[in-house]
Amino acid sequence: MHYTIIPVLGGSDDGRILHVAAVCRISTENQDERSLDDQEALLRTVVEQNFDGKVEWTVLRSQGSGESLERQELYELEELIEQRQVELVIAEDLARLCRRRRAYDFCELCEDHNVRLITINDRIDTGREGWQDSAFISTWHHERSNRDTSGRIVRSLRNRFQQGGVFQIPIYGYIKPPHSSRDADIQKDPEAEVIYEQWFQKLEDGSSFSEIADWLNGQQIPVGPGSKTDRWTCSMVGRVTRNPILKGLRVRNARMSKRINKTGRRKAVKAPPEHRLERQCPHLAFIEAERYDRVIRMLAKRNAKYRRHDENGNDKRRDVPRKRTRFPGQMIACGICGYQYVFGGHGQTDHLMCDGARDYRCWNGVSVDGPLATHKILNAVFEAIDRLPDFDDVFCRTINEEAVRIDEATTREKHDCEQNLKRIQRELDRVIEFIRTTESSSHRLCEELSRLESESNRFRDELSRLQSRPSSTIEVPPVDQLKVMMGALVADVAENSYELQKIMRRLIPRIVVFPYRLCDGGRVVLRASFRLRLSQLIPDERTRNTLDRPLERLLTVDLFDLPQREKYRPEVVQKRIPDRNGRRQLFREIGLDLKITGTAAQRAAELQKKMDELGLEDPYLPVCEPPADCKKLCRHRHPRYSFAPLATAGEI
Length: 652
What we know:
Blueprint: E1 18-26, H1 34-50, E2 55-63, H2 72-82, E3 88-91, H3 101-112, E4 116-119, E5 124-125, H4 131-162, E6 174-175, E7 187-188, H5 190-204, H6 209-218, H7 234-241, E8 249-252, E9 255-259, E10 266-270, E11 277-280, H8 289-302, E12 332-334, E13 341-345, E14 348-354, H9 355-358, E15 368-369, H10 370-386, H11 393-438, H12 443-467, H13 479-490, H14 498-507, E16 511-518, E17 525-533, H15 541-546, E18 552-558, H16 564-567, H17 569-575, H18 587-594, H19 598-614, E19 620-622
Parallel strand pairs: 1-2, 1-3, 3-4, 12-16
Antiparallel strand pairs: 4-5, 6-7, 8-11, 9-10, 13-14, 14-15, 16-17, 16-19, 17-18
Helix pairs in contact: 3-4, 6-7, 11-12, 17-19, 18-19
């Protein structure tokens, strides 16, 4: 096919360079990577046959599904077009770029930015009239062809499964001959008979999947050939246990792929019952069917308490993105290891636990009560706003002096950009004059001209950005106005809603929790430290950026309720002061006044005595290592434990 390719900025005889973006893509790992070379060779040949000037190539080679709209190379290509760094985009066909309506939108994006798009096989050329018809038909054709191919593959695999084929990657205990996919050719590993017998016996005796994983690793039992790791894990043991092949039943199409139209990605969902295929293979059974079904029912009943509970038969979290969570989810980090706290701590859906501790990479197994933490952090935020002093004249004058300093720096940057633009313009004039007088169009001159134009555009963009900065006087809002803003933000937001998480993420970028303990012992608790950025309440960007540091507060919040001996300690100490006659109140009398027991009052006094001996004002001490006398923090004693903190551990 022959195209007359003419760059948007001129023809080949004026010395300009044609900037071309060539898109090459293959879909899966099974495709030959040499296909990318073949596509690139075709695109280069078409351009060279139709344009005799200098061409600067940007080749985007990738591997991934064309249905996916979140591919990095697609973002890069769109950025090149929007910044007008290319004049021509060329591909073998429109599906190499993307599929569905996004492909047609991509054509319009090229047209909006005066970038020419050519797809060879589809005969699309946005530089010609009527390209919209070809683009629309090609988009429909590629989608229909993709759907028909998928349906044909599904029908073929269903038929082959019913004929005893499509035995793909086996799990542990099965031997699959090379170049065979029929279940009749699969054999059981004799050594796996004893392993699976002990495996299911341990399940019947109450062992967990984690315990069985440790036992298998201790026995050095190899994992299946399709595993990505060489060690057994809890989830891997669960998957193998629930595989009905162990009772001699092959199942296919229990789940199916469903496309998420917004992103183009696919996810696995339960298939309709009519899609499910089953095939009896008695020679592959390790466990009797009756015993297998009984163990699976027992596991389902035993683990039911850890599952999400449905409401009226519907899953509350169905189709809810994992990143959408309640406050303070996805905002708390462990101060010991740096890993994130996640909901589901110790089997409680409203408690958060260190993800590192769950994987035996951290010893800090203390959980956070989500609703209690939300309540305490919100109170701390409102108290911080209430404690803000009124902004006096000195503070406002200091802020505006800082703003003036920033404006002066901006003025100097503007002057430098203007001087650079004048210098580049003089150089451009000299180069153009030299070309006119000598009638020369060498490659070096073209490259120098392109470089100068690129620098000129860069300084123009920078100058435009600097000129858009306002330079008016900073109006510092009154403290009362900040309080009203904060109240308006959370007025109609429930503490357990998703909207609160979005609001608090603006004010608090990161929450770090550290374990503490009373100096006289007791349970380990958590304190949260975070930076509160009150400037984010201000709508004006310049004012917000200027007040970012002055309005930042470092807060520490107790994510627990005080024990009785600490809660009443100050009052007990006050009441124990001797009177004029040197008499002290009895603990029983103090207890009656405070409506607590005399023993509780005595323990409060003992806590104060311990603080005086250690010279402490705060009775809580940081816990830097797991206490030897704390029975609940014992993950470091597990054979699977390996402390692996992140580099950002402890940073607030």
